[in-house]
Amino acid sequence: MRAGWASVAVAVLLTAGGTASSTAQTREMTLGNVNPAKHGTTLAADQFVAKVGELTGGKLKIIHHHSGALGGEREVAQQIQLGTVDFGPITAAPMSTLVPELSALQLPYLFRDYQHVYAALDGNDTLRKYYDGVLDRKGFKLVAFIAAGYRGIYGHYPINSIADVKGKKIRVATYRPKKRHRRQMGHRSHLSRIEIRKITGPGKAGTRSGAGRAQSKADEKEAESDGT
Questions:
Q1: Below-70 pLDDT ranges, the chain
Q2: What is residue 94's three-state secondary structure?
Q3: Most buried one in 13, 126, 182, 219, CB count within 10 A?
Q4: Quick count: other Cβ atoms within 10 Å of Cβ 166?
Q5: How, if at all, do strands 60-65 and 169-176 pair?
Q6: How much is the pLDDT for 18?
Q7: Domain boundaries, the chain
Q8: Angle 21-22-23 (CA atoms, 0-180°, nearest 5)?
Q9: Looking at residue 42, what is its pLDDT?
């Protein structure tokens, strides 16, 4: 098996462009973010907001609307295009519906580890130069890339092997902002270790011999007795 991460969530911090006024009057801008308050992308956006305020001496104030207050990621991206929202960290998956070239960042095993991610996104300007032009043609300005973490299962206990999740309850929650849609699905997985001892060719297509069926039943009983 090739070593690597199955998928890394890469987000792009976008704006519609334009420059802030150089007058002494404070200007307010908006940042739309679908993630909750303690999410890593939200914390990164908070740092961005604070840094902009620091560098402009408080003349530019960005109001951060997190938790999907301004809609989903695609909706926020469309509002950026229209100029009704100024900034937004949007992951590559929903952005690829507007900018297909961003789907390349969703390829499995694209990055080996975080060091590889940082080297590709921040260590050189190859991707930056390419996506500057691509996004500009769609009405966006690329502010920065954000490594939003790899896709996986998160819990309140350490997960170091498959055995660590045996019997644990897994919950998947879906919601749609402003749609009153809340749905939760879950199950408690019981993993089994399966050993394939022999593969025999059937006498007829789609059937197994009597000996094969008997062997399968014997294996099932043995597995049950082992408690696996």
A1: 1-10, 17-24, 150-155, 162, 172-179, 181-182, 187-194, 201-228
A2: helix
A3: 13
A4: 13
A5: unpaired
A6: 58
A7: 8-150
A8: 95
A9: 93
The CA–CA distances, whole Å, from 98 to 18, 20, 103, 128, 142 equal: 21, 26, 10, 18, 14
The residues near 94 (Cβ < 8 Å, ≥ 6 apart) are 72, 73, 74, 77
φ, ψ of residue 159 to 5 degrees: the values are: -120, 105
Residues in the chain: 228
Give the pLDDT confidence score for residue 182 in this predicted structure.
67
> Which fold does the domain 8-150 belong to in CATH?
D-Maltodextrin-Binding Protein; domain 2 (3.40.190)
- First vs last Cα of the chain: how many Å apart? 25
Q: Which token pair is 45?
A: 């956006």
Considering only CA atoms, give the Rg of the chain: 25
Residue 186, CB-side half-sphere exposure with 13 Å CA sphere: 10
Predicted confidence at residue 108, as pLDDT, reads 75
Q: Are strands 181-188 and 169-176 parallel, antiparallel or unpaired?
A: antiparallel
